[in-house]
Amino acid sequence: xxxxxxxxxxxxxxxxxxxxxxxxxxxxxxxxxxxxxxxxxxxxxxxxxxxxxxxxxxxxxxxxxxxxxxxxxxxxxxxxxxxxxxxxxxxxxxxxxxxxxxxxxxxxxxxxxxxxxxxxxxxxxxxxxxxxxxxxxxxxxxxxxxxxxxxxxxxxxxxxxxxxxxxxxxxxxxxxxxxxxxxxxxxxxxxxxxxxxxxxxxxxxxxxxxxxxxxxxxxxxxxxxxxxxxxxxxxxxxxxxxxxxxxxxxxxxxxxxxxxxxxxxxxxxxxxxxxxxxxxxxxxxxxxxxxxxxxxxxxxxxxxxxxxxxxxxxxxxxxxxxxxxxxxxxxxxxxxxxxxxxxxxxxxxxxxxxxxxxxxxxxxxxxxxxxxx
Length: 373
Ligand SMILES: Nc1ncnc2c1ncn2[C@@H]1O[C@H](COP(=O)(O)OP(=O)(O)OP(=O)(O)O)[C@@H](O)[C@H]1O
Ligand SMILES: [Mg+2]
Fold this sequence. Notes:
α5 packs across α7 (209-215) and α12 (316-334) packs across α13 (339-346). Helix content is 40%, strand content 9%. The chain is built from 14 helices and nine strands. It has 373 residues and is of the alpha/beta class. Magnesium ion is lined by residues 90-91, 154, 193.
């Protein structure tokens, strides 16, 4: 049987003797003109952290707290558990830990425990010994490939119980057992991450408590994007540059209204969702123009007009206007800004829509770009 070495993008093997950005030498990707931030260098100045190329260090209080905790850990070889919602940047931060550690010249090997089928995970992690069966070739597992470096186990909460026992043995004794072979010594620092509720899993007997205490030598909570909104404009600009290059367009920035909508949204999918939204803007925006609010996805536009908490006043006046604004924005978004089509979706005439937009203050011309790339 031939086993695939990599399964899907998420599970793909990444060994990174990469190009690191040393503290202080990182290009400042946020626009100083548009967003003066006197405290903006704190994440780097005086910090022992090394940020990988393409990673934009944040400057919000929540992320600076996290960097401070990470900075205190750089010399220690303790196993670190990163907890955080999907898309917050756990894997990126595992890379920062690796790049800042004495193991930085060794490999960084990532395994997504949720993306590899349970029956393949054991050989993926621990390798296959010689002569296990005819036709099966010997190959190293990711533990061996991470020798001298860092092994990042993503979605550790989804690891099957049988493998948890084997991982525990590897962490306790520094030895792993390849499939069909004798134990071998390994020296890899293990960093784990999950967005699942490990306490709940431990209570249900789905995650071993003894393994938890092995991997959670130091627990770092990665704050969701909505708790660090100050980092949004910088990320928007970074991503706009990336996707402008991808599309071959010149996108001078976002309109103020679009940026406000992004800053106000809840981002349940965190930085990954922001990436998708900016990619969308880059593809839909006309070349040479600031990306406008109408191009945002319906999710962002609708939540902007209709906050999750019930309004404090139940008076119809005001609330109905809010609802009208929400529906008009959603229709304009779905119609890609085309008034006639939006009016059809709303069941009113084009003139009726224009009049309503004027009354609701939605008629204003797009403001000049706040972000200039
Ligand atoms: N500070 C940052 N600068 C640039 N890109 C970032 C930053 N933080 C996160 N990203 C990007 O956001 C996306 C999600 O990050 P990452 O994969 O590290 O998140 P995660 O927490 O591991 O997600 P999941 O829970 O889904 O595994 C990636 O494409 C990553 O490059
Ligand atoms: Mg991840």
